[in-house]
């Protein structure tokens, strides 16, 4: 198990290093001068040179990359030119919105998808299976931003059950926590249902593949109840592809909420990236993207650990 985890950790660190080089290089070759965009078209050459020097843009690219890499290793992601504050503080403020939103969406997606997938697999070829997978196909096809606007129209504008947008903060008491939860409920549902549709189809396919194995037929021949065969034997052995999709979905939910956060006007990481790109605040874009890459690598490492728990053969490389 230790060798398995060490190998996965080494792969993750190598991926993070390559990602840092790619992110830095891509942002460096983007057209446009950040200093000119920040000061405007009428800025004097002296002011432009002073700002470029302050931003470090007059230094060699290799030195800037190494300084940026060393800063990230010590927790210093630089200082935003637009917000005039450290990038890590901006991220800490915004992650209190994006992380709970992603966790809520993942919990909803999992709670819906796995039972639906098992239900459909247990009733393969029946009308209930066809209806469940038909609804899942519709969920896959619907864009989440359109679904988000539909939810706003029904539950916020029509029924007035939840706020239509904005985030009041988490507050200091249970009332404040409840208000924050209500503000994230519709965005979480808008993110979760399309992901639940994908996960339910994967769960059904994995369950059907496992249910054709010899040990499942042996368990049935021994007289085990159908529910026990499904939940105790088939589900665990079908978890590998399900865990893969769960890891990918959480990474998507954490990093891909730009549209949803703009629909609901949420001050999260997605909206921060969108604003930083439009303002050419490259240090913010680089820092946030690298933090998201690091979070995805950590998620993949956790998924690998779950693989080893679900299938002990992976611990020894078999």
Automatic annotation (TrEMBL):
Q: Which residue ranges run through the membrane?
A: 101-122, 134-156, 176-199, 238-260, 288-310
**How does this protein lie in the membrane?**
Multi-pass membrane protein
Q: Which organism is it from?
A: Chelativorans salis
Task: List the protein's name.
Answer: ABC transporter permease
Q: Where in the cell is it found?
A: Cell membrane
* Keywords, alphabetical: Cell membrane, Membrane, Transmembrane, Transmembrane helix, Transport
Q: Which InterPro entries match?
A: BPD_transp_1_N, MetI-like, MetI-like_sf
Please indicate if the UniProt record lists DNA repair as a keyword: no
Which stretches are annotated as coiled coil? Answer: none
- Occurrences of domain ABC transmembrane type-1 (ranges): 95-303
Q: Output the Gene3D superfamilies linked to this UniProt entry.
A: MetI-like (1.10.3720.10)
By sequence similarity, the record places it as follows: Belongs to the binding-protein-dependent transport system permease family.
Principal location listed in the UniProt entry:
membrane
Matching entries from SUPFAM superfamilies are given as: MetI-like
């Amino acid at each position: 198990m230790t060798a398995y985890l060490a190998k996965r950790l080494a792969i993750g660190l190598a991926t993070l290093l390559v990602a840092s080089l790619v992110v830095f290089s891509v942002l460096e070759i983007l057209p446009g001068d950040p200093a000119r965009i920040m000061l405007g078209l009428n800025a004097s050459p002296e002011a432009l040179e002073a700002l470029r020097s302050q931003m470090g843009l007059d230094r060699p690219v290799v030195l800037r990359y190494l300084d940026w890499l060393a800063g990230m290793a010590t927790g210093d992601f630089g200082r935003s030119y637009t917000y005039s504050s450290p990038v890590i503080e901006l991220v800490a403020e915004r992650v209190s919105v994006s992380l709970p939103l992603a966790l809520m969406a993942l919990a909803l997606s999992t709670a819906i998808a796995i039972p639906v997938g098992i239900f459909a697999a247990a009733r393969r070829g029946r009308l209930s299976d066809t209806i469940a997978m038909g609804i899942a196909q519709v969920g896959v096809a619907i864009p989440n931003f359109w679904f988000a606007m539909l939810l706003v129209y029904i539950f916020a504008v029509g029924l007035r059950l939840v706020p239509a947008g904005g985030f009041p903060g988490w507050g200091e008491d249970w009332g404040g926590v409840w208000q924050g939860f209500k503000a994230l409920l519709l965005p979480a549902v808008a993110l979760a249902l399309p992901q639940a549709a994908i996960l339910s189809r994967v769960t059904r396919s994995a369950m059907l593949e496992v249910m054709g194995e010899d040990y499942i037929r042996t368990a049935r021949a021994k007289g085990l109840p159908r529910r026990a065969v499904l939940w105790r034997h088939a589900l665990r052995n079908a978890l590998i592809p399900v865990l893969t999709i769960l890891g990918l979905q959480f990474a998507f939910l954490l990093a891909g909420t730009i549209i949803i956060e703009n629909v609901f006007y949420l001050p999260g990481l997605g909206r921060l990236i969108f604003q930083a790109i439009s303002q050419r605040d490259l240090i913010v874009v680089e820092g946030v993207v690298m933090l998201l890459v690091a979070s995805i690598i950590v998620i993949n490492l956790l998924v690998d650990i779950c693989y080893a728990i679900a299938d002990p053969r992976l611990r020894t490389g078999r």
